[in-house]
């Protein structure tokens, strides 16, 4: 079946009025914006592709050996320049002679200690020296027992094995023999040592001359 369409040519505008001009301008502007947007997208994609290709083609720079050597040298210098802790200064105390002279005077008074030490005993027999030593020993023992309280430093039996741990008092225990390495040390107790827990020397008068340990004796 044939269908015929009749077109009314009178409906086609024959004049280009203002309304149609505005509509044509809007279409032109939209088309222009679309073209600009497409061009911008293409340019951005091309720029990103070039940047990625440049990054992939650029080799990663490795540190030069000289720079590494310098860094190692600086670290060594820093380690060397760290100062070691300074040792504590040793404080020396001056001892007075009055007490020593007083003790010497007591030994002379009770035991004739100075007379015995100053005597040349080479001309005496062993029995004569032994008899004099008994007198000196008794007098010295009396002075020590009256004026000093003495206690042994070590309570173990002499000859027994003992162990000295790290931090032991080196002023109270003296090591002898082959000393190698660090504590703990194990060895035989040769001498138990002595320490004075109390000293009871007599008081001196203001005008006493301590240098006179034994006054001269004159019999009238």
Order of helices and strands: HHHHHEEEE
Mean of residue pLDDT values:
81
Which regions contain 5 or more consecutive residues with pLDDT less than 50?
Answer: none
Instruction: Compute the number of strand runs.
Output: 4
Gap from first CA to last CA: 186 Å
Helix content: 40-55%
Which strand order does the major sheet show?
A: 1-4
Percent range for β-strand residues? 5-15%
Shape: rod-shaped
Largest sheet: 2 strands, antiparallel
Count of individual helical segments:
5
Radius of gyration equals: 57 Å
Query: Would you tell me the structural class of the helices and strands?
Result: mainly alpha
Descriptive notes:
The mean pLDDT is 81. The termini are far apart. The chain is built from 5 helices and 4 strands. 45% of the residues lie in helices and 9% in strands. It has helices at residues 18-57, 65-81, 98-111, 113-118, 126-147; strands at 148-152, 161-164, 185-188, 194-199. It is rod-shaped, with a radius of gyration of 57 Å.
In short:
With 220 residues, the chain is mostly helical. Helices cover 45% and strands 9% of the residues. The termini are far apart.
Notable characteristics:
two-stranded antiparallel sheet; mainly alpha; 220 residues; 4 strands; two-stranded antiparallel ribbon; 45% helix
Compile the SSE list and pairings.
Blueprint (H helix, E strand, L loop, with lengths): L17 H40 L7 H17 L16 H14 L1 H6 L7 H22 E5 L8 E4 L20 E4 L5 E6 L21
Antiparallel strand pairs: 1-4, 2-3
